[in-house]
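Objective 1b: paired records.
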Amino acid sequence: MWPLAVAATTAVALVLRLWGVRHGLPYAYNVDENAHFVPRAIGLFGHGWNPHYFANPPALTYLLHLVFAVWFGGGQATGRAFARDPGGVFAVARVATALVSVAAVPLLCLAGARLFGRAAGLLAGALLGVAFLPVFYAHEALNDAAVLTPLALGLYGAAGVLRHGRRRDYVLAGAGLGLAWATKYTAAIVALPLLAAALASAGSRPRAARRLGLGLAVALAAALAAHPYALLDASDFVAGLRHQAGASGAAKLGITGDSGHVYYLWTLTWGLGWVPALAALGGALHLLRTDRRVAAVLVPAPVLFLAYMGLQQRYFGRWLMPALPFLCLLAAAGAVALVRLAPPRWRAAGGALAAAALCAQGLVFSVHGDLVLSRADTRAAARNWMLANVPAGAAVVVEPVVTDRWLGDPERWRNLAPDALRSPGTHRLGDGQVMRRQPRSTLAVGFDGYAYTLSPALLETWEREGVCWVMTGSTQAGRPLADPAAAPGAVAFYRALARRGELVFRASPMTGGNAPPEFNFDWSFDYYPLGYRRPGPLVEVYRLRGARCASGLARGPRA
């Protein structure tokens, strides 16, 4: 029965991850998905296996490269497929990512069974299978959900080291560690369970030390197999790590919280759930009192991870993902310990109640998220309206909430954002991003630079030059509005645009056309609140009315 229960749990988790997997396509609106793993996996066909990019490790890039080679039939066929239908290529990448990520569910079931018994293992896997954060980000071709599988493999191996101390357990734990690091650097936290299990395992110390050496050697081999240019191109690799560390330590426009630690604790209440978060705390306290060997394997890693991540200047809910397998195991342990306090005749009912309590919040919000993702994006509605109402060739300003392909290839409209907004000291990146050159210590990159170019004076310039259509999106406009003191020119710009422009189109993602929640880097993008009805930002299109716009000469700026 237990294998069937694990299979059913995995099947439910897979359905949740594949439902709505084509959201937004043919446009990949997530800037990281659009810029990182998929295009770099395609790029490997042209320049060999060195990704020449190490801010993120390349294991997922390599996996997608192999998937594309098999699915499409080689590099030229993949390139043609991407040129003809990029949405189809992204869909293949998303399905591959979902399939990889869902494998974490049975692996966590096995790890929990080794540590606490089959009931707790099934609970841990079920919780990971339905929790909102891992379900939502399994819909994107990103490494955040994919890394859960090597993490769970590492935990399964570490549990075997603790319980049995066999060579194969060390090998599995080492393989999970190496692959986790090669998928997402912060997932190297799974080294701590291996070390703790080796120290606490039964048997002679010299034998445990030899086998630990074997496990670490396997970890190194797996890491280099999936990330070989960390050694073969060490200088670029170190530069990539420094860049990523600098970016994580730099403030980001739109982040207004004072504490990353508080932010991540809040993230647990919805990304994992209130009841699971409290159960994980209870499970940790219970293990510290009753089984310190298991506590040493499971408790230090998430605590240290949260402590470290909370010190960064940037914090996003998906960055919490490597801690979730640990917390799922701790929550399951806490729930089972609580059920065992009940009289024997009530334990079956208590177990069912505990499972429902642990999984209910995640299941409800994951199903809601899938429903939202299965509907048309607000940016698709805006594009349809603009195709019908904005003349071809007109000069427009479309904020960087879409991709270049959204504008047309060749462009149907002449998009003056961000090119017309570039001030001295800025330059263009891909797909509508702008980078403002700052001292290397600040690394203020990406969409942040766009807001700093805005001011009410731009509206007069646009009207004078015949740029009469302006499309805004709340995921861009919300950033300076959430932190007005950081970009006062942008705040004044949006107020002036509302006064001087005529609002001719509006598409809200919320039920009843309401405004989205106040901007943050999670709920503005992952659609967790139940008020969301469809994906995307609040999109508004304004028609400017002054100067040449008043005379109807809106075809484009003067040469």
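Objective 1b, second protein:
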Amino acid sequence: MTDRIPPPATIRIRGARQHNLKNLDLDLPRGRLTVITGVSGSGKSSLAFDTLYAEGQRRYVESVSTYAKQFLDRLLRPDVDAIHGLTPAVAIQQVSPARSARSTVGTATEIHDYLRLLFARLGTVHCGRCGEPVQADSPQRIAADSAGWPEGETLLVLAPVTRSERVAWEEQAADLLRAGFTRILDRGKVIPLEPLPKPRATAEIDVIVDRFTWRREETPRLVESCELAFRRGEGRLRLRLGERPSEERSERWSCAACGEPAMRPEPALFSFNSPLGVCPTCRGFGNVLTFTPERIVPDPSRTLREGAIDPWARSWRKLFWPRLEKLARERGISLDTPWKKLPAAHRCLLLEGGEGFRGAIPFLQRLQAKSYKAGNRFIVKRYQTALPCGACGGARLRPEALLVRVTGKTIAEVTALSITAADRFFSELAFGPEQREIAGPVLTEIESRLRFLLRVDLGYLTLDRMTRTLSGGEAQRIELANALGANLVDTLYVLDEPTVGLHPRDSDRLAELLNELAERGNTLVVVEHEPLIMRAADHVVDLGPGAGEQGGHLLYAGPGGAALEGADTETARYLRGEKQVTRARVPGAPDRFVTVEGATHNNLQDVTARFPLGRLTAVTGVSGSGKSSLVEDVLYRALRLRLEGREEEPAGAHRAVRGAEALKRIVLVDQSPIGKTPRSCPVTYLGAFAPLRGLYARQSAAMARGLKDGAFSFNTPGGRCE
């Protein structure tokens, strides 16, 4: 037998020319942490993602069947001569948090999927009427219960058969005889079916499936008889041992105390993304869009004449103003009194309507019924607020799912726990040996993910927190926890600036986790600018010296830390302190401010902050301290509503935002991609293509041919190449 050839110690890249790379030859150590750095546009992503990861993914796709290939993203072969020693690749790129209202911390980390399995297998169903535990029987469960039965007594296994109103008893009895059943139990007596007896007029007949003397060794016979009785009795059977009363057992999920039906617990029952488990009222969103007085009357200091009722102060004013004047004359409602000073009865009449008058809410509900018109949808949404669903209380699941408990908690109560509390809850679960055997693999996966989240300092998040409410740093760490917590080995991880959005305290912890992952035998290639990660790296690749055509050259490839600082590159000069970022300060103290007062959104504790106008202001703090809650959820959304009259989501809780009158426009620059279509390019995004098309359309040759601006656009018919 020949000796196994050891794997290569490096990933050898030869002749990499992808994008602006200048025919690079490079060796990257396997099982180590490598950082690729350099100025923006120098070719870092071209080397890490468009070359290394693309080739690893391409090789993986080539290895699967033709049928499976149609479901996988197929990347083009990178422009490189050869890559040797490449291992299976996983990419973790910068992405903005999922914007779906159905995505939560639990679903993003797959913890919710394992929770569904746990509740489906080990959850106890409770009756929705009386609260008693509901448990379906099975032949195996009956066999387990038989261990305590006294031996030597006669055991009857009975199948309750319903008397049919449409079929004569003679025909039913004949059918039972053909099926092999020869006796029934009537008034406690065993009666043969031949000759045909006349049983009492009851709704059910107890057919004897089996009769024998009970002994422990008869357990297999008991199981077989119970299976047959359940089939004939449509999920029900009765057991009679000796002279004891008959004991009823049921395979159906129903309460033994009151008969209330229940649902069999399945994993899909605990998913708010499944038709089986979703709350029928809120459809799995946890809240319901409701018309609220605060949105219909945004400024209570206005009068009716000034347009206090916002839906009727815009394009509908001509239609509704005569009706308001008529109502005011008939009911004595003042048109010149501020809304907040009107009597409660008058406000209720104007909002909810009454005899002979349709109020603002019924009017909006009528528009909502015609939501097939885009204009109606836009108007209606402006006056709705997302309020917790009254049917599920915000749990998103149907009532039957919330009747299943594990150690006294529903799945909604478990997901409402913080990650720290959830880790404590699962570590303290007391299961018996049989339950522990079932739950063992599931609990291992849950606890592994929870502890990884704790290590990246996310213990304060709850499992039901929507991912779209997370800050960039929180979303990045959850993405890392989901990918790095999979415990893969001998894998190539390619990461895109994982420290973006992280505080230096969190970056230090991230460096520890990356090195720990490399110690398992994985190869990590990280595109990064953070000095802390460069110093912690085993190997550093510096590209440059400039961007675009001036980039793509290999300036340094070697150990990180002190060795990198001694190199003659732009990166090393900044690390040594020879160069640093400076800017000219605006002289004088600022004289105008935008002030946020009393912000209490998410974890903000009654924060009041002043932002000077005409200055650069940095809002900092550890990840999860409330930076995004203050700047984006409160300041940006409040100013957007004030300046543009638009509101995708309501602003976070706060008392007031002052100083907005000094601003004309507000722009949010976040991590979301700026272009979403293949036709989007810098010239179209910046709006520079419109005057360029106009310039060409005004040329004499274009005017002679009757060409308009659209003839020079690749987004319109006639201009684009069809």
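The mean pLDDT is 85. DSSP finds 24 helices and 23 strands in the chain.
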